[in-house]
Write a structure and sequence with these properties.
With 200 residues, this protein is α+β, with helices and mostly antiparallel strands. 36% of the residues lie in helices and 20% in strands. It has one domain: Alpha-Beta Complex (Adenine-n6-DNA-methyltransferase TaqI, Chain A, domain 2), CATH 3.90.220. It is built from four helices and nine strands; from the N terminus they run βαβββββββααβα. The strands form three sheets. The chain has a four-stranded antiparallel sheet. Helix 2 crosses helix 4.
Length: 200
């Protein structure tokens, strides 16, 4: 039986920490400040979506590496639970220091890496987590860098990655259907109770 080759995540991707969201000292005046769209952990949805962004103002320009790009993978630094793959370019958008961005090199399919991080990676990270006894758990760039990634053929990576993206879409669709069913059920019950009161 052939042993599957593995590579460390640090060998196939850049692992970046984000822009501090704290106000810059002595910079309360926002005149002349540069405004950026800003992604924080609470903006990440469970269906591989960015639910919203906020704004951050800086008096100095942000380095190009902090701008969110297509195919970036976002992970929460605290209590990681999901991986979010950026499907489309997001103009003028930077990410919080409470997020990691995994920027995969060309030989690997980003959705495949995101799938592994969300499924296998979280289990490994949670077993090697900083402050695992505490309610708030924190992962480090070092622990991410040490993750083993199965080095399979690119076409197999693509197939697995596309399957994961489809799963995310189906999950979102199912969630929307459940919400609609709940609204319909509530409307039916309200109409019945209202009719009962009128007959009293």
């Amino acid at each position: 039986m052939t042993t599957l080759k593995k590579v460390k995540l640090k060998k196939i991707a850049d692992i970046l920490n984000g822009v501090p969201d704290a106000k810059q000292p002595g910079k309360a005046n926002t005149t002349g400040a540069i405004t950026y769209n800003f992604i924080q952990p609470n903006h990440l949805g469970i269906s591989n979506d960015i639910q919203s962004t906020s704004e951050i103002k800086r008096h100095t320009s942000v380095d190009d590496s902090y701008f969110v790009r297509k195919n970036d993978i976002l992970l929460k630094r605290l209590n990681p639970d999901i991986a979010t793959l950026i499907i489309e370019d997001m103009s003028n958008t930077v990410f919080s220091s409470n997020l990691f961005v995994i920027r995969v090199f060309k030989d690997y399919f980003p959705a495949y890496i995101a799938c592994l991080l969300e499924n296998q990676g979280m289990t490994w990270l949670n077993s090697n987590i900083v402050g695992s006894v505490a309610a708030i758990k924190s992962i480090s760039a070092k622990s991410l860098a040490a993750l083993d990634i199965p080095a399979i053929d690119y076409d197999k990576q693509e197939a697995i990655g596309q399957m994961w993206l489809l799963y995310k879409k189906r999950k979102k669709l199912l969630g929307n259907m459940i919400e609609e069913d709940q609204r319909l059920m509530a409307a039916v019950i309200n109409s019945i109770t209202a009719s009962a009161k009128e007959e009293e």
